Structures are given as structure tokens and as C-alpha cells.
Amino acid sequence: MKTLLIISSIFVMIGCKTTDSTDDSTSNNGIPDCITQKINAIKAMEVKKPPLSVWQFQYNGRTVYYISPYCCDMFSELYDNQCNLICNPDGGFTGRGDGKCPDFAEKKTDEKLIWKDNRTYPHIR
After folding, report:
1. Is 75 helix (H, G, I), strand (E, B) or coil?
2. Is the pTM above the cut of 0.85?
């Protein structure tokens, strides 16, 4: 019985993973899991016109993720690496976003395309 308890304890310790509150939970490609989940949610939606894309930038000293707007008056979305919405940098009726990060276009650096929806838009007959 004592041996069974020891073996069970070893399996529990091997199977447990400790995390702390600052864990960014990234996938193998270095993209935060929450951004991957957003991409998967987009894939589950109908194709937008223009197709959506996800970009990675450096902005104000941190890595951020930009999701393009899918139409002229829709906001884009800018997230940190834990998927907290930072701002809507562009889009909307004025094209200037929500005004919370008006310097994004000027200060963003290290542009990297993470994902683009390459599905074709269904033609209307």
C-alpha cells in the first residue's frame, strides 16, 4: 500500500505544472495562446471582406497584437500579450479609432504578420 501511495504521488507530481500569474501561456510558435484562440474564433466565423489579419508589433516597449478591422466603420483591436484590449487604434466613423492610443501608427515598430485569412470570399450570384 505504501508503494502504491509513493508511485501515485510521483505521477501526480510529474503531471502537475506550476504557473504564476505572469505566465503569458504561449504556444510553440511564441504567440500567446489567447491570440491563437482569437485566430481560431475568426476562422470559425464567416469570411469577412476584406479578410482579417493579425499582426505583431512593438509599441511603447511591449509586444502587442493588432487585429485588422473587417469593414470601413469597424474598429481595429490592439491587445497585449495577455489579450487585454489596449485600444482600438483605427477604424470607426472617423477612421481614428477610439482615441486611446493616437500615436500607435507613428510609434509601432517591428511589424510581423502572424496570420491572414486566406479563405476566399463567397461571390454573390
Report:
1. strand
2. no
Residue 39 contacts residue 116 (beta carbons within 8 Å)? no
CA dist 95 and 52 (Å) reads: 17
Q: Torsions phi, psi of 23, nearest 5?
A: -65, 125
Please name the residues in contact with 87: beta carbons below 8 A apart, sequence gap of 6 or more.
78, 97, 98, 100, 101, 104
- Look at residues 111, 116, 91 and name the one whose alpha carbon lies nearest to residue 101: 91
> What's the distance, CA 107 to chain centroid?
20
- Residues in the chain, total: 125
**Residue corresponding to grid cell 493616437:** 102
pLDDT by residue (tens digit) across 65-80?
999 998 878 999 999 9
Dist. CA 74–CA 50, nearest whole Å: 12
d(CA 61, CA 59): 5
Secondary structure of 105-118 in HEC code, one letter for each residue: HHHCEEEEEEEECC
Asked if 25 and 88 count as a contact pair (C-beta separation under 8 A), the reply is no
Domain boundaries defined on the chain: 50-117
Q: How far apart are CA 22 and CA 91, in angstroms?
A: 31
